[in-house]
Amino acid sequence: MQITAAVFRAVGTPLTVETVELDSPQGHEVLVRTVATGVCHSDLHVVDGLGRFALDKPFVLGHEGAGVVEAVGPDVTTLQPGDHVVACLSGFCGTCRQCLSGHPNLCTGGIVNRPAGATPRLSQDGQPFQTFAGIGSFAEKMLLHENSLVKIAPDLPLDRAALVGCGVLTGVGAALRSAGLHAAQTVAVFGCGGVGLSIVQGARIGGARQIIAVDMFDGKLAMAREFGATHAVNSMTEDPVAAVRALTGGAGVDHAFEAVGNATLVRQAIESLAIRGTATIVGVLPPDAMISFPWMAIRPECKVQTSRMGSNQFRTDIPAYLDFYRQGRLNLDAMVTRRGRLDEINDAFRAMKAGEVARTVLLFD
Ligand SMILES: [Zn+2]
Ligand SMILES: [Zn+2]
């Protein structure tokens, strides 16, 4: 079948909206009509040729997708046509060591794409196209493994549910799962884009006593306050480490989160910790990034850890976080600061770089 998709061809060039051939579902695959997709920094990283996502071949990006199941392969057992679904990067095999030890977000089973040499899911004039993490939501239809999808209640708005598939899952999960913060603890969040704002929300849901938002943009700090930050620090006008110390009576915070992927912010997060504090690095740094800090900056028994996709178990986490939304405890409405169509994708990237948005959502209907 022919579908319309935004195609990435080379680093630094705009995506182009093209007609692409989509195969029919095989085995455990599901065909989904895309209704909405968020535009995530990880997509932009590919376009900019950054980090481990550096790729220079035809690709359909997009991974924060939500839609309606149209057809399923013969081996699919968890979904049927008509189901509303959210896609997630953390497709899991269910049989590898990480999956079996309760960490499916770290799955090494490699089931999200078809095996090498198989008929490609997407192609154009015989040339195979790849998809981001086996998803490819910058397209009017997605063909993906059933373990990359979770079914959600049909009354939920798909444009907001889509965000929970990546940015919100990553941020709320970093606070509640990776950091495991306790009620009445103190928190600082470095970087208040879509993920940082979701960490702020996760900290609020988890009962943090103090949530200090740090960013370069006053607009983002105002949003962070709207999402539950109790204090805001503009890192262009104040030394954020000194500010965090002052706001916590000199103690530092129990949990500091880095949500950008910047070595300076990682160092600042570590230096902001209280005794026995934990720094959780959520951002993706360039592979060769080096982080150095004076030994005395580390308080006794502090921990530094990374978080991959909010340490999620998304088949249960996404419905739980959507319950928070229904109950008014998780604000997804204000996370969507911009809506557009597929052919406005390049402008969505521009707005993201300019720091204008929490999230742009592209709509297909
Ligand atoms: Zn993402
Ligand atoms: Zn696995």
Spatial shape: globular
Fraction in helix: 10-25%
Quick check: average pLDDT? 95
**Strand content range:** 25-35%
- The CATH C-level class name of the largest domain: Alpha Beta
| CATH third-tier fold name of the largest domain | Quinone Oxidoreductase, Chain A, domain 1
Q: CATH homologous superfamily of the largest domain - what is it?
A: Medium-chain alcohol dehydrogenases, catalytic domain
Rounded Rg = 20 Å
Bound molecules: zinc ion
Query: How many angstroms does the end-to-end distance come to?
Result: 18 Å
Low-confidence stretches: none
Counted up, domains total 2
SSE pattern: EEEHEEEHEEEEHHEHEHEHEHEEHEHE
The class by helix and strand makeup works out as alpha/beta
Q: What's the tally of helices? A: 10
The biggest sheet amounts to: 7 strands, mixed
What would you say the CATH architecture of the largest domain is?
Alpha-Beta Complex
Tell me the total number of β-strands: 18
What does this structure look like?
- This protein has 365 residues and is of the alpha/beta class.
- The protein has 2 domains: 2-165 and 331-363, Quinone Oxidoreductase, Chain A, domain 1; 171-308, NAD(P)-binding Rossmann-like Domain (Rossmann fold).
- It contains 10 helices and 18 strands.
- It has helices spanning 41-47, 97-100, 158-164, 167-178, 194-205, 218-226, 240-247, 263-271, 314-326, 345-353; strands at 2-8, 16-22, 29-38, 59-60, 64-72, 84-87, 122-124, 127-131, 141-145, 149-152, 186-190, 210-215, 231-234, 253-258, 273-281, 303-306, 336-340, 359-363.
- The strands form 3 sheets. Strands 3, 5, 6, 9, 10, 17 and 18 form a 7-stranded mixed sheet that branches. Strands 13-12-11-14-15-16 form a 6-stranded parallel sheet, sandwiched between helices.
- Helix 4 (167-178) packs across helix 5 (194-205).
- It is globular.
- The relative contact order is 0.16.
- The mean pLDDT is 95.
- Residues 40, 42, 63-64, 166-167 line the site of one zinc ion.
